[in-house]
Write a structure and sequence with these properties.
6-stranded mixed β-sheet; about 20% strand; about 575 residues; alpha/beta
Length: about 575
């Protein structure tokens, strides 16, 4: 029985909002999704995924063609209420779904509107908060939660209403690895045990691999529709579409090119090991050379603690006795579970937050002094999550030029800094005069980073710079960060929930847990501690998990390998 199907579904934003001029965002889609299916939808940024999702519970209405939900035409306004009871939506940005002052009240909001009895409301709220790992925050205020914690509450609010179908639009983009696992286990269990139809939009290929079926979109059209193994077997096609495949799938594909005969396309570590033919030659894996750094740190924290809302009922210790040194020119990744204190920590680097106790030094000088604080904010550039939300000017060029223009520089210097910053992030002159709101998601992210770089900081701090980007957009951003680091020698501090990104980019990894630094070292040292990382809500790259398993079976296989390229070198001879 069909949960959802469409015929010739077409949509133009200019018909919905005349001021927005676009081509067809959805272009004649014919889709059929059965009740009880688990479908993942993949596509590059701008491919039409989110627009399609908003049609599924009648937030948008087709320009042409028809979409039926459980037999109800979404264009018929009389069906809207029932369609929205049938299809629950979880959006990428949880702030768009928060309505109450207390977490448990937010989760209960939808149930109260449905007239669910009070005792059942209490039971459902408790059960769904537990399922997303947020029980201890039931009485907390949503505005005090981190982005990832808010997302779990938003998911719980939809799950509590027990819809027949749940559409999740990048629900785990802001979550730590443990949070992602919990969310995926929750929706998988709902699908298998309760028969709820799941439609998951994601940029995480390992998440998509758990679905029964994958729909791939490109420029408003469906270009692939098949089970995960078949879709991910087209590795080169997925890369052409700006997408990726699971790391183990990419590794098997690369090893096939070297003559290894795999019995199937693996989607998981266990499948890779099962399909791996006998290895005849195992190469050693020499750790990459790390540059020597100056002994004198550029940033130093001594005994830094920070308490939010001190001496109130909402008091919360976010940092506890943190001691940290970062050298000039380092590329450092800071990882930790949601709420571990990462974002609070980086806001001390340029004095956006002042420590409750302890000292922050920049080149050995205490930045708490007002005269030093202004200089610190020029030298330490912060790029927050979703930095495109900081864009506001009429053109890309003017937006990037805004910062240096307020530093008392001459027009010639402003122009020089602006053009240099735009060049470093890979934005060509053909976008300079465009509105920052008309360019792609990846270009917006680069423009926002350029706006900070144009002020010539000595230190660039990036808080989840690739969140919400498709694999190609993420690759482009990180390639530009690497290039910028190599060309300018700038100190780069990266916060990431992606262990793959931290392993590939950083020369040192700092691990936080409950407001403290609990580990720090090279990626090789950190990502071989898989059991410890899982205990604190993190994970290791999929390749690390694979190589650890292979090492356990054959000690000649080196365990300290965490990228596809390195694994190809080891297993491919």
């Amino acid at each position: 029985m069909k949960m959802l199907h469409s015929k010739g579904l077409t949509f133009k934003y200019e018909d919905y909002e005349p001021s927005v001029k676009t081509e067809n965002v959805l272009d004649g889609l014919d889709i059929s999704i059965e009740k009880g299916e688990f479908v993942a939808i993949l596509g590059h940024n701008g491919s039409g995924k989110s627009t399609l999702a908003r049609h599924m519970n009648a937030l948008l209405s087709p320009t042409d063609g028809t979409l039926w939900v459980n037999g109800m035409d979404t264009k018929n306004a009389e069906n809207t209420w029932e369609i929205r009871q049938t299809v629950g939506m979880v959006f990428q940005n949880p702030d768009n779904q928060m309505v109450a002052a207390i977490v448990e009240e937010d989760v209960a909001f939808g149930l109260e509107n449905l007239g669910v009895p009070p005792q059942e409301i209490r039971e459902r709220v408790n059960a769904t908060l537990k399922s997303v790992g947020m029980s201890e925050y039931a009485a907390a205020a949503p505005h005090q939660l981190s982005g990832g914690q808010k997302q779990r509450v938003a998911i719980a609010g939809v799950l509590a209403m027990q819809p027949s179908c749940i559409v999740l639009d990048e629900p785990s983009a802001m979550l730590d690895p443990c949070g992602r696992r919990e969310v995926m286990e929750t929706i998988t269990r709902l699908n298998r045990e309760s028969g709820i139809t799941i439609i998951l939009i994601t940029h995480f290929m390992e998440e998509a691999a758990r679905a029964n079926r994958i729909i791939v979109m490109d420029s408003g059209k469906i270009v692939m529709d098949a089970p995960p193994r078949e879709v991910f077997s087209h590795v080169e096609k997925m890369h052409e579409l700006g997408l990726g495949v699971p790391q183990v799938t990419a590794l098997a594909f690369a090893l096939r090119k070297r003559g290894m005969a795999f019995t199937e396309t693996p989607l998981s570590v266990s499948e890779f090991i099962r399909a791996l033919p006998p290895i005849t030659t195992i190469a050693s894996a020499a750790p990459p050379e790390r540059p020597r750094r100056e002994a004198q740190p550029i940033i130093e924290l001594r005994g830094v603690s920070h308490i939010y809302n001190a001496h109130s009922v909402f008091e919360k210790a976010a940092l506890s006795d943190v001691n940290l040194q970062i050298s000039k020119g380092e590329m450092v990744a800071i990882i930790g579970h949601t709420g571990s204190g990462k974002s609070t920590l980086i806001q001390h680097f340029n004095g956006l937050l002042a420590p409750t106790a302890g000292t922050v030094l920049l080149d050995g000088e205490n930045i708490s002094d007002k005269a030093k604080l202004k200089k610190a904010r020029q030298r330490v550039g912060l790029v927050f999550q979703y930095p495109e939300h900081q864009l506001f000017e009429v053109t890309v060029y003017k937006d990037v030029a805004f910062g240096p223009g307020n530093m008392g520089l001459s027009q010639e210097e402003v122009d020089k800094n602006t053009r240099a910053a735009l060049e470093i992030v890979g934005l060509s002159e053909d976008v300079y005069d465009k509105s920052p709101f008309e360019i792609s998601g990846g270009q917006k992210r680069r423009a926002a980073i350029a706006g900070v770089l144009a002020m010539r900081p000595d230190i660039l701090v990036l808080d989840e710079p690739a969140a919400g980007l498709d694999p190609r957009g993420k690759q482009e951003i990180f390639a530009q960060i690497k290039k910028m680091h190599e060309q300018t020698g700038i100190t780069v501090i990266l916060i990431s929930h992606s262990m793959d990104d931290a392993a590939e980019l950083a020369e040192r990894v700092i691990v936080m847990n409950k407001g403290r630094i609990v580990r720090q070292g090279t990626p090789e040292e950190i990502f071989t501690q898989g059991e410890f990382l899982q205990e604190i809500g993190l994970d290791t790259p999929q390749i690390s998990r694979l190589m650890s398993r292979l090492n356990a079976e054959n000690p000649e296989v080196p365990a300290r390998v965490f990228t596809v390229e390195a694994a190809v070198g080891v297993l491919g001879g």
